[in-house]
Structures are given as structure tokens and as C-alpha cells.
Write a structure and sequence with these properties.
heterodimer, A: 201 residues, three-stranded antiparallel sheet, 3 strands, elongated, disordered N terminus, B: mainly alpha, 7 helices, 66% helix
Chain lengths: 201, 190
């Protein structure tokens, strides 16, 4: 997987695209298996980090992000009565399944050294970790601003409710789905452009 | 007479050093910024209630009807209730996220942001959106059958496996289009 033609000049024009698509499909399963194995540990890390981030915006600290099992979490508030303290739940694993696509896309690029391939993947993974923490932060704020009835209305104005609602919507759908592609384009678009440049001549 | 000292000819500095980063990567940066702006605009547009009620919901209901027709052909004996496909053994509600619109918008933003002729863009959009919807139809049908025969893996299949497949398909389709068909417009003569 990831093999490149020995001499790109001799390769047919469609070589790069064909190899890239083939490699992406072949990498999908191994990357998915690795992701499945790592997901419980990554979930724990994400919840801890996001809890710290949420608490930076609170005074006094009131939010706990509790693991329900390997994949789910509760948003809990310590200042609520115990019977009502679990205010929202979500599946943490759904936050970061884009890592599968990220791995497949970055490992599939043909004709580059493994050093560059892994370095790019490492940077992209680091950016994705920050994105995932930020997304859970938005989940929590979205729940506080829009899901707690009178409490939400008392603590969040119309602008704040729309901000957290639209922010969560945009981060959770378009940007979560397209982040791997966006990062791939940031690292490898020049390679793709170089591939198609001869057509311009 | 001693030979005049001639200053050594200054070798031209490599272009990489003199051209600023943003200018050197103008096309790539333009693509990335345009892509993000178009994507955010597209998803903001479909989050407006009026657009959702008058465009997204009817589109989703159409997808549900076609999927129901295919499932009927496969002998599933389904009946439709708006965007719900129901059989005696299982039911699914086709909602936002299951209608392929996310993958379509990502593909659309990427095609429009890429430097290519309008002819290439329009052809890419027409065929790409059609292809994405075909894959999405396969997803809905496969998910329904998963719910009927393998209900324990339905959730994982729904949120992880098929979302990844549909979005990855859109991305690979775009790379194929960009590489094979999107001949960028010629640079203006300087």
C-alpha cells in the first residue's frame, strides 16, 4: 500500500489518481480497525480535556463530563439537584470517526516519502485532536444554551443561544465531515495541482 | 595594468525565497478559503427553517420514496409514512444526515472552489451529485437491511461506517474530477 511508480515520468497520466484512490480504499479497513481499538482510550482523553476547557469558562466550576461506558458520556452539573444533574448525553465515539477518513486519505498519497507522509499525518492528527476537544466544548455549551428550558433562557440570551446552536451545527456536520479533506488539501493540494499542471500547457 | 576587479555576478536568488508564502501558494490558499466559506454558507442555508421545510424535507421524502421502492423490489414489503420507511420487522426515518446532502454540499463547495472552467465545474457537479445520491441510496437500503437482519450493528453502521463511506466517496470523486477533468483556465498572459 502506498507504493509509488518508480519513475513517474513513465507512468500513465492517470497513475496518480488511480493509485491514490486504490490506496485510500485499501487503507480504510486497517485504519478503521486501529480506530476501533483506540476509541475507548481516545474518548477518555477527549472528555478529560474538554472538561478542563469547559471549566475555564465557568466560575465556579460546575461541569463534569462523565463516561457512561466506552462510547457514551453524560454532561453533569454539580450545582443542580442530584436527580437532575445529568443534563445531556452524547456518543463520544461519533465525535471522532472522521479520524478513519483522515488516516486513509493521508496514508494513501502516492509518490512521496514515508517520512513526509507520516509527518503530515502527525500534524493533521494533532489539529484534529484540538478540533475534537473544541467540538465537545460546543456540545456542552449547546446543551446549556438550548436544552435546559427555563435555566437556558435565564442564563443565555437570544444571540448566545443562536451562536452556540449554529456553531454546534456547523462544527458537528460540515466541518467534522470535511475536516480530513480540508487538512488533506492543505498538505497535498500543491501535489494535486502539480499533477494537473501539464494540462494547462 | 592590473586587471580591474569585477564584482562577481550576483546569482539570482531562488524564486522560493523572494516570493512571499501567500503569493507562492495563492491558488491553494484561495481554494481552501473559498471551500470553507462555501461550505459554511451552504450549511447555514439548509439550516434555515424555510429552506429546510420547502427544499430539504421534500428532497428527503423523495429519497425515502425511492429507497422504499428499491426495498420493495428486494421483497421487504415496506410502506411509506412521509420520510419513514416501515416494514413489519423494522422502520427507519430518513432525516438530515441520511439524505446525502452533507456529502453533496462538501463536493459542491470543493468543485466551485477549485480553479477550473465553468464547463468542467457544471459537468462535475451534475455527474458527481448523481453519483453521490446513488451511493446514498445504497446506504439507505443497506442500513434498512442491516436493521432487519443485523440490528445489533445498526447504530455503528449508521453513524460510523456509512457516513465515512459516503463522505470518502465524495472526496475521492472530487480528486478524480480535479485530476482528470478539471483543466484549470489558462493563466492570463503577462
Amino acid at each position: 500500500m502506498g507504493a509509488a511508480p518508480a519513475n513517474p515520468a513513465k507512468a500513465p497520466r492517470r497513475g496518480w489518481t488511480f493509485l491514490f484512490i486504490r490506496n485510500a480504499v485499501l487503507w480504510l479497513l486497517p485504519v478503521a480497525l486501529l480506530w476501533v481499538l483506540a476509541a475507548p482510550v481516545y474518548n477518555r482523553f477527549l472528555l478529560g480535556s474538554a472538561e478542563n476547557l469547559v471549566r475555564l469558562t465557568e466560575n465556579p466550576d460546575a461541569t463534569n463530563l462523565l463516561r457512561k461506558d466506552d462510547h457514551f458520556a453524560y454532561v453533569a452539573r454539580r450545582d443542580f439537584p442530584p436527580a437532575k444533574s445529568l443534563v445531556y448525553s452524547f456518543r463520544v465515539t461519533d465525535v471522532h470517526f472522521h479520524l478513519v477518513m483522515l488516516g486513509a486519505l493521508f496514508l494513501a498519497v502516492p509518490g512521496i516519502s514515508w517520512r513526509r507522509r507520516l509527518a503530515s499525518l502527525g500534524w493533521a492528527f494533532l489539529i484534529t485532536i484540538f478540533f475534537d476537544i473544541f467540538l465537545i466544548f460546543f456540545y456542552v455549551k449547546f446543551a446549556y444554551a438550548t436544552r435546559l428550558g427555563a435555566w437556558s433562557l435565564a442564563h443565555y440570551g437570544p444571540f448566545a443561544r443562536n451562536f452556540w446552536g449554529l456553531g454546534k451545527h456547523l462544527l458537528d456536520l460540515p466541518f467534522k465531515f470535511s475536516l480530513p479533506f480540508l487538512l488533506w488539501a492543505a498538505f497535498y493540494l500543491p501535489d494535486l495541482m502539480a499533477e494537473i499542471r501539464p494540462k494547462e500547457a | 595594468m592590473p586587471p580591474k576587479k569585477v564584482a562577481p555576478a550576483r546569482s539570482p536568488a531562488p524564486a522560493q525565497d523572494t516570493v512571499p508564502f501567500w503569493l507562492r501558494n495563492r491558488r491553494e490558499l484561495t481554494f481552501l478559503i473559498l471551500f470553507v466559506v462555501l461550505l459554511a454558507a451552504g450549511f447555514t442555508l439548509i439550516s434555515i427553517n424555510w429552506v429546510n421545510d420547502h427544499a430539504v424535507e421534500p428532497f428527503t421524502a423523495g429519497i425515502a420514496r425511492v429507497s422504499g421502492g428499491v426495498l420493495d423490489l428486494l421483497g421487504q414489503n415496506v410502506r411509506m409514512e412521509g420520510t419513514v420507511i416501515r416494514s413489519p420487522r423494522f422502520a427507519v426515518n430518513i432525516r438530515n444526515g441520511c439524505n446525502g446532502i452533507e456529502a453533496m454540499l462538501i463536493f459542491l463547495a470543493a468543485v466551485l472552489a477549485f480553479p477550473a472552467s465553468w464547463k468542467s465545474r457544471l459537468a462535475g457537479l451534475a455527474l458527481g451529485i448523481l453519483a453521490i445520491q446513488v451511493v446514498n441510496l445504497v446506504r439507505v437500503v443497506a442500513l434498512f437491511l442491516t436493521g432487519v437482519y443485523f440490528p445489533r450493528i445498526f447504530d455503528t453502521s449508521h453513524t460510523v461506517i456509512w457516513q465515512t463511506i459516503v463522505i470518502l466517496f465524495g472526496v475521492l470523486l472530487w480528486i478524480f474530477w480535479a485530476n482528470r477533468f478539471a483543466a484549470p483556465p489558462p493563466k492570463p498572459a503577462t
